[in-house]
Amino acid sequence: MDALNTQNQLEMARNVHDLGSINTMREAIASGDEGVLKEAAQQFEAIFVQMMLKSMRKAQDALADENSPFNSQQVKFYRDMHDQQLANDLSSGGGMGLADLIVKQLGQQDDSYRPASTIRSDGDFASLNAMRRAATRELSESAISSNSMGVSNATKTAMFSSPEDFIDTLRPIAEKVAQDFGLDPKAMIAQAAVETGWGKYVIHNTQGNSSHNLFGIKANNGWQGEQVTVSTLEFVDQIPQQQKAAFRQYDSIESAMRDYANFITSQPRYAQAVDNAGDAKQYTQALQDAGYATDPNYAKKIMSVYSSDRLGARMP
Predict the structure, then answer these.
(1) Domain spanning 133-312, CATH class
(2) Backbone angles phi and psi of 156, in degrees to 5
(3) Helical packing angle, 2-13 and 21-30, nearest 10°
(4) pTM above 0.70, yes or no
(5) 179: CB partners within 8 A, 6+ apart
(6) Rounded to the nearest 10 degrees, what angle do helices 185-196 and 163-181 cross at?
(7) Where are the beta strands (DSSP E) in the chain?
(8) Residues in Cβ contact with 261 at an 8 Å cutoff, skipping those fewer than 6 apart
(9) Which residues of 84-100 are buried (b: 16+ CB within 10 A; e: fewer)?
(10) Which of 294, 295, 275, 93 is nearest to 286 (CA)?
(11) Which residues contact 98 (CB under 8 A, 6 or more apart)?
(12) DSSP assigned state of 249
């Protein structure tokens, strides 16, 4: 009988114009009645519906005849009262389903529904983004450090003694090839530095011979030369993942650079990059936009090397 009496009180409290409805809700809360959550959720949904109706009325008022007797302030006053009660009645009769979602979320009675405590962020999107970046960085470092960046029938080992040796060895070859194909030699070396970690991670086959693959070019169906298979780090939905792939193998650094230059200048999808070869920033961004690499920060990494003091000291 007590529960029935409380329910009747809640039913009466749905009259939005009843000034005693708030006290009725307070009494129901004090009695520990579980139906209070549902009632509160329905009233919240009613507020939401009322806001929708109010917006619709404003749109209608903009087109209304100012001289019409149905457009007076008195009519609008009673119309708004009607809309408030209508919103309450709609929410109590099933409404839009928003009240049911609130009950499930806050009531935590449904095992298949995630409680609010597990997904609440308090609107702190900066912290969430920072956590996501940290997780991505951790996955990247884990993948890179795992078994020398991951190997199958090949390894990634150093081909140069130092970054300076890397630059000095590549520079004359890059300048020669770049002149033949109309590219920027400094941008080529910067990209090679990103792809190989300044020559520290160059693919070597099982015999220990270098592939000379400085630009991470894969061996697609059209490649007729030697190839070597190795695990590589790819980004899927901005999350790093290790995948096995076959890469092209060359007999020299110059062969690798010429194949890269021919690869870029001969494919239509890199046409915008070639058109902007004189501007390193636009060139590298065009490469990324065309899908040269899956790393979302690929262009920024190349430009970071391009603008570095280390490369600038040897290639002003």
Answers:
(1) mainly alpha
(2) -115, 105
(3) 150
(4) no
(5) 185
(6) 130
(7) 155-157, 202-204, 227-236, 239-248
(8) 177, 178, 180, 181, 183, 188
(9) bbebbebbbeebeebbe
(10) 275
(11) 41, 44, 45, 48, 91
(12) -
What whole-number distance in Å separates Cα of residue 149 and Cα of residue 143? 6
Cβ atoms of residues 160 and 199 within 8 Å = yes
Residues noted as catalytic:
234, 259
306 contacts: CB under 8 Å, gap ≥ 6: 186, 187, 190, 280, 284
In terms of phi and psi (left: phi > 0; alpha: psi -120 to 50; beta: otherwise), the region of 238 is left
- Residues 92-149 have pLDDT tens digits of 666 677 777 776 766 655 555 555 554 544 545 566 566 666 666 665 555 444 433 3
Amino acid present at 25: M
The tens digit of pLDDT for each residue in 257-308 reads: 999 999 999 999 999 999 999 999 999 999 999 999 888 999 999 999 999 9
End-to-end CA distance of the chain: 89
Instruction: Compute how many other C-beta atoms are within 10 angstroms of the C-beta atom of residue 20.
Output: 12
- Tell me the two tokens of residue 285: 């961004």
The candidate with the shortest Cα–Cα distance to 87, out of 54, 126, 136, is 54
Q: Which tokens sit at 63?
A: 């087109």
